[in-house]
Amino acid sequence: MEHITIKDIAKALNLSTSTVSRALRGSHEINPDTKRSVMEYAEKFNYQPNPIALSLKENKSRSIGVIVPEIDNPFFSQAINGIEDIAYNKGYQVVIFQSHESYEREVINTQHITSRRVDGLLISLSGQTTNVEHLKNLHDKGLPIVLFDRISDEIDTHKVISDNFEGSFNGTEHLIKTGRKRIAHIAASPHLSISKERVKGYLAALAKHNIPVDESLLKYCNYGLQDIEFVIDQLFSNETPPDAIFTASDRLALGCLSTLKKRNIKVPEDIALIGFTNLKVAALLAPSLSTIVQPALDMGKRSAELLFDLIENTSKLPKSYRTFKLYTELIVRNSSVMKSDEE
Amino acid sequence: MEHITIKDIAKALNLSTSTVSRALRGSHEINPDTKRSVMEYAEKFNYQPNPIALSLKENKSRSIGVIVPEIDNPFFSQAINGIEDIAYNKGYQVVIFQSHESYEREVINTQHITSRRVDGLLISLSGQTTNVEHLKNLHDKGLPIVLFDRISDEIDTHKVISDNFEGSFNGTEHLIKTGRKRIAHIAASPHLSISKERVKGYLAALAKHNIPVDESLLKYCNYGLQDIEFVIDQLFSNETPPDAIFTASDRLALGCLSTLKKRNIKVPEDIALIGFTNLKVAALLAPSLSTIVQPALDMGKRSAELLFDLIENTSKLPKSYRTFKLYTELIVRNSSVMKSDEE
DNA sequence: TTGTATGCGTTATCAC
DNA sequence: GTGATAACGCATACAA
Hints:
homodimer; six-stranded parallel sheet; six-stranded mixed sheet; elongated; DNA-binding
């Protein structure tokens, strides 16, 4: 892969590299003729400045790192879509890493990230992560970081989340209002901020409607299909099984739907189902599933925008960091069932 | 984001940068004591070599570019998962671009890719792409390229695909053998290699079983949900609607399932459905959908491995390029229905 | 207006 | 065994 350099142009045109550089950069302190001839030559031989040389010089890479638990998760792939969108417009490249829900892998990834000299980091924590020293260190060293979705209180930076409490509260209350009495909640890893908030919302809705909490209806679940099958079988081995399930994520909703089908438990006839999902999954699952829609794409975009704000203003200190809550939207489906329940 | 350099170490230890460099690289022509003290200092202050400087020197970036139509598509996100896996082990970073099924965007992305000096390119063509000069150019300039899934005959390089013809043939034949007479096929963009191969397989299966081709049952469809709804409504406005639908991708299968549900057409009671999907989607949709499973993860891994082969052997010419076909797997579900149909 | 010199971080090539 | 120097591609302070 050969590339033409400024030096080549200079040689060909009998100029110095600095003159060529100036011409290319559109400097005004240059002879219009020289400029034109340089531009023509550059055009003709498809000159493209070497970004690596620039990076070395300016000590920045024009790339941002993104660490997500799994790329192959509808929520995160859609968030990355949004991130890529913003980065593309800013002329940055997006470098992807997966933690695979492993704390160790996340730590290793943060090391790679810094050794790669990315200009900023977007991260959603792994389900195993309880200690965030690895991120604190980076942040203390001045790396702009934005946390999204799965955040930690211990890091003082911008964060973007959806309104997990409210979404969870609304979803649970919807189930209550449609007559459900035994509402199970399947949450993701108990370490995650999103899990905690969603459980809070679930409990708050039950409390508001004076429904006693049954601990056996609150399950934490990994993302594997076996895990969710196990959890659902547990729920249904209960003396009085749930009449509704509220799941905390895309994957759990999908897994739940599939397991229920396997077990021949009909949704929504036998059991009501509502899930936190991103917009695309919600659309695809319509109309069998009511959903609390998380703005995955927007979360990606918003996070990236905030990160670029930080990157482009690293000089301006001190910053005041904020946590941005994006609205969730409750989409109610199976209206026929709703009606019968509402009587 | 401050980083310690070789120069810093040299200054601190009263050595020259070359000595430090040698010590760090584990050269043998060096005093063991010097080496140890350098290593200790580097360890203590967490020295990390600057990959950008390395890149400039070696004229390679230790990164590979990946261009996919949409990250947020289960097939591609899983393929990227595989790519990331291999790249991670090789110590390469993965830079992601989306063409958004747009030819123009794809061309622009290839320009970005080269300007970024990636060491290789993995690409799956956009649905609009018919002209591949932009890739030919890069390839002629010596950039290692591997095409996967959506390929073009016009580029002479390694390619990795699933056995689209066979998968399609088997899926269609399965529908025929279970008694279906009017089998519709919903394909993706007609420009795509995968579409062509799958249509061929579909037609071949019909031909083998002496089923006349009904042009009105063969539809090409974009990925938007509106598009698929439109197509399905078209199919069912037919005087004699289909009794089976064979869809050509994850997205089409999901969209089809969702639309049929919306229209209150029951699967598999009213209509049999079979789709090309990746493993995870197949698992999630079980047991409602029989699937021709494409090895998305493996395709990502295999493509990345081949790309690294090319990257690491750029000196060895000439190469003989190959097209690797990965097996698809037919997973038959709804066995109860099958039985009744098989009688 | 243009050219020369320097530096970004690293390693390779030469000297000593 | 160690150090000085050049080079990768570019931008810029300074000199002309």
